[in-house]
């Protein structure tokens, strides 16, 4: 099995004199939606990334207060959603790792997998960045990867930035990017499915069909 994700496992080796840039789009993806996909695409474009690895969290510990779908369903939906984009791939490393999922562990693994000419860019919405001071190993994160905080409707980027700087021992910079505002959330999609409303155009059609075929989201969070 590929160590990170097959498509980008040998990134950096082709031309050791060139710098490569790899994005990491971390999330629970329960389910993945156009907000995630469009965010990854806009960051890839703006930062000239060679690719983006979608990284479904195995056990997202900050979501223990609510129902989270099985990792294999979330992985399968993410794979369907990115299948038509040659710059995207999905990694199993977090869902194959036992225990609660910590980004610091993932970034350590990725940093040791890739040669030094591959720079890592962890992509995150303003809501996730605003919690970063409480992430495991927060002070180490900025040394392992660049962090790109993107705007998200309803969340403050100023607060996200303050929390990010608070989490860093040294003042690593946070790259900020204003992206097209899509007020879409997985929570809204789950609610719509439960209420029998359409989610067409909010997530790719293969994901809509997967949710229907597997009867996901019958119950409240
Ligand atoms: N519409 C959006 N615009 C920008 N970023 C987003 C958007 N939706 C999610 N993100 C970012 O994508 C990452 C993964 O998000 P996640 O999988 O938790 O989705 P979510 O829609 O926030 O889910 P939920 O509603 O279940 O909490 C986070 O960094 C989050 O900030
Ligand atoms: O490492 C941590 O402690 C940590 C705590 C909360 C969230 N994260 C990561 O942040 C990303 C977005 O998380 P979420 O919960 O908004 O889907 C995802 O990759 C999570 O694994 C990481």
TrEMBL record:
Residues 24-191 form the Cytidyltransferase-like domain. It catalyses: nicotinate beta-D-ribonucleotide + ATP + H(+) = deamido-NAD(+) + diphosphate. InterPro entries: Cyt_trans-like, NadD/NMNAT, Rossmann-like_a/b/a_fold. The keyword Transferase applies. Coiled coil: none annotated. Pathway: Cofactor biosynthesis; NAD(+) biosynthesis; deamido-NAD(+) from nicotinate D-ribonucleotide: step 1/1. Its EC number is 2.7.7.18. Keywords: ATP-binding, NAD, Nucleotide-binding, Nucleotidyltransferase, Pyridine nucleotide biosynthesis, Transferase. Transmembrane segments: none annotated. Pfam families: CTP_transf_like. It comes from the Bacteria. NCBIfam families: cyt_tran_rel (TIGR00125), nicotinate (nicotinamide) nucleotide adenylyltransferase (TIGR00482), PRK00071.1-3 (NF000840). Catalyzes the reversible adenylation of nicotinate mononucleotide (NaMN) to nicotinic acid adenine dinucleotide (NaAD). PANTHER family: NICOTINATE-NUCLEOTIDE ADENYLYLTRANSFERASE-RELATED, PHOSPHOPANTETHEINE ADENYLYLTRANSFERASE. Belongs to the NadD family. This is Probable nicotinate-nucleotide adenylyltransferase. It comes from Slackia heliotrinireducens (strain ATCC 29202 / DSM 20476 / NCTC 11029 / RHS 1). The lineage of its organism: Bacteria, Bacillati, Actinomycetota, Coriobacteriia, Eggerthellales.
